[in-house]
Amino acid sequence: MTSEKKAPIDVAVGILMKENGDVLLAQRPAGKPYEGYWEFPGGKVETGETVEEALKREFMEELGITVLNKDPWCCVEHVYPHAHVRLHFFIIRRWAGYPQSRESQSFGWQGAIHVEPLLPATIPLIRWLDALRYPR
Ligand SMILES: Nc1nc2c([nH]c(=O)n2[C@@H]2O[C@H](COP(=O)(O)OP(=O)(O)OP(=O)(O)O)[C@@H](O)[C@H]2O)c(=O)[nH]1
């Protein structure tokens, strides 16, 4: 038996946020693990890329959006049956273009989050996100 531990897979995730606090969620396409679950757009960091570069690439590939400004927000690790991921979340308040579904994903702007199911690692973030976008 081996006790070898695999390094986590880095994933760049972006939360597009409008001035009124609405955020963009996307539905995972058919054929991927957790197909049909809702997530914030993003994807795995490729070899030789920084997390920021991966974020920009994924937003262009998935949504046709140019990221103009991004604030690192939080980093969360989660062990799924299919992978151990390290999610690097960014808040994106400035971008160019309108989201288009380039990979046949459904997506939508959400104030209070009404879509489900959400990816398990993303669920706890919603409370933190609400504290950020709706400060008392
Ligand atoms: N984009 C995104 N991924 C998330 C979130 N939460 C979360 O657990 N993940 C996990 O992060 C990983 C992202 O991988 P992915 O398969 O979507 O990445 P990718 O687009 O580069 O896919 P591919 O290159 O395998 O086709 C998945 O294991 C997914 O379950 C989230 O909110 N957004």
Please supply descriptive tags for the structure shown above.
3-stranded antiparallel sheet; globular; 4-stranded mixed sheet; Nucleoside Triphosphate Pyrophosphohydrolase; about 35% strand; single chain; binds 8-OXO-guanosine-5'-triphosphate; alpha+beta; about 140 residues
Describe the fold and architecture.
- The protein is of the alpha+beta class and 136 residues long.
- The mean pLDDT is 94.
- The protein has helices at 51-63, 125-133; strands spanning 9-16, 23-27, 38-39, 42-44, 66-79, 84-96, 107-110.
- The protein has 2 helices and 7 strands, in the order E-E-E-E-H-E-E-E-H.
- Strands 4-1-6-5 form a 4-stranded mixed β-sheet, with helices on one face.
- Residues 11, 13, 32, 34, 39-44, 78, 80, 83, 85, 87, 119, 121-122 line the site of 8-OXO-guanosine-5'-triphosphate.
- This is 8-oxo-dGTP diphosphatase.
Provide a count of the helices.
Answer: 2
Bound chemical compounds: 8-OXO-guanosine-5'-triphosphate
Euclidean distance between termini CA atoms: 53 Å
User: What is the name of the CATH superfamily?
Assistant: Nucleoside Triphosphate Pyrophosphohydrolase
Family: Belongs to the Nudix hydrolase family.
EC number: 3.6.1.55
Cofactor: Mg(2+)
Domain Nudix hydrolase: 8-132
